[in-house]
Amino acid sequence: DSVAKRLRVFRGTRQTMEVPLPGESTALCCFHMDETNVPGIGVAIDGALYVFRRLRPETRYVVNDIATIKEEENHINCLATLPKLLSDDTGHGIFTEGKSCPVLGLESRHILILEHTAKRELCRVRLPEIPSIIQVIGCFDIDWRLIV
């Protein structure tokens, strides 16, 4: 159904825009790819994370084949974001609403943390079960925890 394959934008309770998607989405997250005030919207579709900025396709991260059992799939079924530390003019780190890293939960029982541009994997963790919800605490550069 093509109606379900759209990213819809609302202002209040009124829909203002629709963007077609290449497939049916399973999860969505909003994160900052740089210090600008323009967030990226990450949309999980099968085994890929599509990132939109200003409602235009920016990049796509395809999950490599990491399934360990033939029946497992690399579909993304949950998303979260993990803040990164920014440096100020003095060289000291400050914790702000700047860059953040997408965190992907996969049906192959893995968690992936991508860099803030969503182009490269920073961390991979194997879980005993399939993740369905991810809660993030902390900052990637200092100390962080994932509650799955």
Low-confidence stretches: none
Strand count: 14
Secondary-structure element order, as H and E? EEEEEEEEEEEEEE
Structural class: mainly beta
Helix share of residues? under 10%
Output the strand order for the largest sheet.
Answer: 3-4-5-6
Radius of gyration: 16 Å
Mean pLDDT: 85
**How many helix segments?**
0
Largest sheet: 4 strands, antiparallel
Distance between the termini: 31 Å
Task: Characterise the protein shown here.
The chain has 148 residues and is an all-beta fold. The chain is 0% helix and 52% strand. It contains no helices and 14 strands. It has strands spanning 6-11, 14-20, 27-31, 40-45, 48-53, 56-62, 76-83, 86-87, 93-94, 100-106, 110-114, 121-126, 135-139, 143-147. Strands 3-4-5-6 form a 4-stranded antiparallel beta sheet, with no helix packed on it. The chain is globular.
Q: Could you list some keywords that capture this structure?
A:
148 residues, mainly beta, four-stranded antiparallel beta sheet, 14 strands, 52% strand, globular
Concise account of the structure shown:
The chain has 148 residues and is mostly beta strands.
